[in-house]
Amino acid sequence: MTEKIFRRRSVSRQTLLSGTAGLLGGAALSSDAAIAQNTAPASAGAAGNSPSNPRYPDPAWLALRQEEIIEPELEIVDPHHHLWDRPGHRFSIDQLLADTRSGHNATETVFIECGSMYRADDPVEMKPVGETEFVNGTAAMSASGQYGPTRLCRGIVRHADLRLGDAAARVLEAQIAAGDGRFRGIRPSVTWDASDVLSRGRTNSPKGQMYDSTWRAGFARLAPLNLTFEAWLYHPQLPDLADLARAFPQTTIILNHVGGPVGIGHYKDKKAETFAQWKAGITEVAKSQNVVVKLGGLGMTFGMFDFYARGKPPSSTELETAYRPYIETCIASFGVDRSMFESNFPPDGASSSYPILWNAFKRLAAGYSASEKAMLFSGTAKRVYQLA
Hints:
The protein is of the alpha/beta class. It has a single domain, classed as Metal-dependent hydrolases (TIM Barrel, Alpha-Beta Barrel). It has twelve helices and ten strands. An eight-stranded parallel β-sheet has the order 1-4-5-6-7-8-9-10. Strands 2-3 form a two-stranded antiparallel ribbon. Helix 5 packs parallel to helix 6 (about 170-180), helix 8 runs parallel beside helix 9 and helix 9 (about 270-285) packs across helix 10.
């Protein structure tokens, strides 16, 4: 295939991946990656927001880059992936198994909420329990051993609306019951930015959501139930999370996607400034010992890199070089015992395949000892999600 053809294809991918909620060229939009993280669930009789590109991730494009697996024996617990069946795109047990069987030693996984299979007929606050039931079924299929040794969805993280305040406890208890011993915590998106370019999630989070007293009353219900809180936000919100972590030192908080550095919209031409702001925020959040960080999510289309728009997927060496400043900053701030690599698939599949991504992570961890690697690739996840 010629370079000219690659370039035409690259433009097509960039257009398709830029989403359906707005116009290209500086107008308001929401990227597919943001939609994938925050989209409302489809309801009966109505189409929910979902990735518009049925090739997302694009298997043919991803297949253009092949590598031998690095350290294939190293155990991996993937602490962050999704499952969904949406118009134009399906990522369910078959697709997840194809990734976990692609050469790396993935032994267990953790499912993170994405608005799938909400109950159609329940009160609005109880609808998210349907996703727990759906994923628990996948976990039960995997636990049968019929699908191989990897135990999929050993932990389940779902949604509960903390704006219910104390009443969130009833939803949390229903989620625990539906999880049949696998439910570990919640991820109610708090993403907010002044720009219309970025999604504000299914709940349309307001500015300062994490300071709201009613929301915090709901948050206070997590620790007594031994549940974690997944923080999905954008990098300017890191000071808000630092304040929340200080206010609730007994609650385990899991910072998603290295704190969500944004590289589109009004952040596009300010990457040095963004990195400095992000680094300051990470340093402050890491001071609270109850916060751990997920190392990944850098391949989404709202982030700092445009690998998804290129004619050929990046190599693991290219990813290593690009991601290193973010990964090293996080590990230096949190330590290996509060850091864990994540795939964030399928959203990160916009930029690389599953085996290439984990090769990149292994390159990034090459300088660490065997025990430190064990923490980064499996140990921290096992401890935080109580999988051992």
